[in-house]
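Quick one, probably user error.
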């Protein structure tokens, strides 16, 4: 048996520091300390750019620990769109830049270059294959559960080709994501979550590959209903590792998986990070909510104005850098924490947009 165990958080820059502090203290720090102290295990993860920056300021020793593990090939770091942007909503010409900015942040912080993509909200478009190859990404890790039709589309890794570009797609097990989502909604207790996760590991076949990606935001949300669970959250990861080692399982990372089958991942909304409700596709969010449609059109309009601004390269770069800090994911697709902070998401998005507009028109009118 082979096991890939990973974690991810989708916290945005608009969240208060207490959210980062809790996830860091309850899960991230103890889990990576366990991995460091146990040479037989490895872990994969995706952290938001906001979380990486928070750790650099408040807990640089954790980033140093992760850097040490990464250089010893004990962890695999996934990159994503900078500041949790939903990639299919972006213009094609801007996608590579927004991914490369986050990849550069990871490289400067941890000293390694990420080659695996994790999409915010697990919203995917086949047109991203070309973008991935442009920024030297070889594989995609995404849930096997389609949030729209409520079905599991694949059970194993496969190779996908789009317009002559090829990537490996590594689907994660929906069984683990479903349990974590149920815990986040207070439908099951932490003991039930832990026991059922260990049962899945124990019942797996000898030739089976288990690929689990666990949402830290949902774990913290579930523990909010029972605050005594805070100190036990990291034990979910350590218990899974120990149960797998009892079975002499091989702990691997997505880059170690060889995809031999051929398949195709269609445009869609995957995973259980948020409920799709009655939506028939993700872009329908923009049809139902005129405010969101207005926000995205404002960004597109400003981006087109910048593309015509060829003389003042300094202005173009400064506005583009500021524009890339817009929390372009949680505004359109609330994560576990954003449901109670919708106003802060709107303010952060709109204030950044106003700053960019002022910088552009102030400089162009004076010139």
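Nope, works fine. Designed sequence:
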């Amino acid at each position: 048996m082979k096991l890939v165990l990973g974690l991810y958080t989708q916290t945005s820059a608009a969240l208060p520091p207490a959210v980062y502090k809790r996830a860091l203290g309850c899960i991230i720090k103890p889990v990576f300390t366990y991995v460091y102290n146990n040479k037989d295990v490895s872990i994969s993860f995706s952290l938001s750019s906001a979380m990486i920056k928070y750790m650099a300021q408040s807990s640089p020793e954790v980033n140093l620990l992760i850097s040490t593990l990464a250089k010893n090939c004990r962890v695999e770091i996934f990159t994503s769109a900078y500041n949790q942007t939903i990639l299919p909503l972006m213009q094609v010409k801007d996608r590579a830049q927004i991914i490369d900015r986050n990849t550069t942040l990871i490289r400067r912080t941890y000293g390694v270059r990420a080659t695996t993509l994790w999409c915010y909200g697990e919203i995917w478009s086949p047109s991203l294959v070309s973008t991935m190859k442009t920024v030297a990404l070889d594989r995609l890790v995404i849930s096997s559960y389609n949030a729209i039709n409520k079905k599991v589309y694949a059970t194993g890794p496969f190779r996908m080709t789009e317009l002559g570009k090829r990537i490996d797609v590594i689907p994660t097990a929906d069984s683990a994501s479903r349990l974590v989502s149920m815990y986040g909604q207070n439908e099951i207790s932490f003991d039930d979550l832990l026991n059922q996760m260990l049962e899945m590991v124990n019942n797996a076949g000898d030739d089976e590959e288990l690929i689990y990606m666990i949402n830290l935001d949902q774990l913290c949300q579930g523990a909010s209903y029972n605050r005594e669970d805070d100190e036990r959250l990291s034990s979910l990861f350590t218990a899974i590792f120990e149960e797998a080692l009892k079975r002499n399982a091989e702990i691997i990372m997505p880059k170690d998986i060889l995809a031999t089958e051929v398949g195709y991942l269609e445009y869609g909304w995957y995973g259980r990070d948020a409920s799709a409700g009655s939506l028939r596709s993700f872009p329908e969010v923009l049809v139902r909510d005129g405010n969101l449609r207005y926000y995205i059109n404002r960004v597109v309009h400003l981006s087109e104005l910048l593309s015509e601004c060829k003389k003042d390269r300094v202005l173009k770069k400064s506005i583009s850098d500021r524009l890339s800090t817009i929390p372009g994911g949680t505004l359109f697709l609330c994560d576990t924490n954003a449901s109670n902070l919708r106003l802060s998401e709107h303010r952060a998005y709109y204030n950044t947009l106003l700053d960019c507009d002022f910088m552009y028109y102030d400089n162009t009118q004076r010139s």
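The chain has 13 helices and 14 strands.
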